[in-house]
Design a protein that fits this description.
The chain is mostly beta strands. The chain contains three helices and 19 strands. It has two domains: 108 residues, no CATH class; 168 residues, no CATH class. The chain starts with a strand and ends with a strand.
C-alpha cells in the first residue's frame, strides 16, 4: 500500500486480504456563485469480511476565477486512511490507502484536520444546498470536556449598499457533539450572505486595490454610493479607511487607534473551550 490505487467505476478492487473497495457512483454539487465551491464526490462501498460499509470521499473546487483552487479530502476508516488524489471524468478516482498500525478508535482524540472533515460532512448532510469555499474562511477547532466545536469565520465580510440595514450572517459553526449547525438550525439560510457575481467583482476590486486581508484582524468592506469603507479591527486595535469606488485611491483620510482595556476582574470559566491547533 501507500502507492496510488486507481478505483474504476463499478469494478471491485482488492486492496489487501481483508479489504476490497467498489466505486459505485459520483455526485456533483455546483457552486451558485464565485464565492462558493463545487463538490465532486465518489461514493464507495468497503467490503470487509461479510460486512459492507458505505462511505463518500470528495474534491472541493473553488469557483472563484482568481484562486480556482482544489482541495482533496482524506478519510479515516478503521485501520485505514484513504487520501483522494485525483478524479477522472466520472470514470475513476486515484487514492492513496495507508494501513495504520492500529485502528483509529473513537476514544482516540482527533486532530484538527479530522475534526474539520467531520464538520464538513455534517454540513453537507444537513444542508446539501449550502456550498461554501473553505479557502474563504478561517476554520478553527475547539474542545472542552463537554463539547467539540468547529468554527468558520469569514475572512473578508462585504456589506452591499442595498443591504446595509440588514443583519446578515457571515460565520457559522458546527457542534460535533450534538451535530448542530449554528445559525442555520435556528434561522435557516435566509440571512446568510452569498455574494452575487457583481458583488464578488467589487470585493475583488477592494482586495486588489487595498491589499486585503490584513492577517490577525477582522476585515469588513461596507459599500457606499461613491466609496468603500474598510474596517480593520481585533481585540486591541482598529482602523477605518476609505477608497474611491472607481479609482481605488484612498480618500477622506483614515482613522487608526487602539482600545483601552477595562480593568475588570477576570471571570474564570471552569470548562473553557481550548483551541486545537494541530
Amino acid at each position: 500500500m501507500n502507492n496510488i490505487t486507481n478505483l474504476e467505476l463499478n469494478k471491485k478492487t482488492k486492496i489487501d486480504n481483508s479489504l476490497s473497495i467498489l466505486l459505485t457512483r459520483f455526485s456533483h454539487k455546483n457552486a451558485i456563485s464565485d464565492k462558493q465551491v463545487s463538490v465532486l464526490s465518489g461514493h464507495l462501498i468497503f467490503f470487509q469480511g461479510e460486512k459492507e460499509y458505505e462511505l463518500m470521499i470528495s474534491m472541493y473546487e473553488s469557483a472563484d476565477r482568481i484562486s480556482h483552487k482544489k482541495e482533496y479530502e482524506s478519510i479515516n476508516w478503521n485501520e485505514y486512511t484513504i487520501k483522494l488524489k485525483h478524479i477522472s471524468s466520472y470514470e475513476s478516482i486515484d487514492v492513496v490507502i495507508t494501513k495504520n498500525d492500529a485502528p483509529i478508535k473513537k476514544n482516540i482524540p482527533l486532530d484538527k484536520s479530522q475534526l474539520i472533515s467531520k464538520a464538513n460532512k455534517i454540513i453537507t448532510t444537513k444542508y446539501s444546498q449550502f456550498i461554501f469555499d473553505p479557502l474563504l474562511y478561517e476554520i478553527t477547532a475547539w474542545k472542552s470536556s463537554e463539547e467539540t466545536i468547529v468554527k468558520y469565520r469569514r475572512i473578508i465580510r462585504f456589506v452591499p449598499l442595498e443591504k446595509k440595514d440588514e443583519n446578515l450572517d457571515y460565520d457559522f459553526e458546527v457542534n460535533l457533539t450534538n451535530q448542530s449547525v449554528s445559525p442555520f438550525d435556528f434561522w435557516g439560510l435566509d440571512k446568510f450572505y452569498f455574494p452575487t457575481i457583481e458583488e464578488q467583482e467589487k470585493i475583488n476590486f477592494v482586495i486588489k486595490e487595498f491589499g486585503l486581508p490584513r492577517l490577525g484582524f477582522n476585515n469588513t468592506i461596507v459599500e457606499g454610493p461613491d466609496m468603500y469603507s474598510i474596517y480593520i479591527d481585533n481585540e486591541v486595535a482598529f482602523g477605518e479607511y476609505f477608497i474611491d469606488k472607481k479609482t481605488g485611491k484612498e480618500c477622506m483620510g483614515s482613522i487608526e487607534g487602539s482600545y483601552a482595556l477595562p480593568d475588570f476582574p477576570e471571570l474564570i470559566n471552569q470548562d473553557p473551550l481550548i483551541e486545537i491547533k494541530e
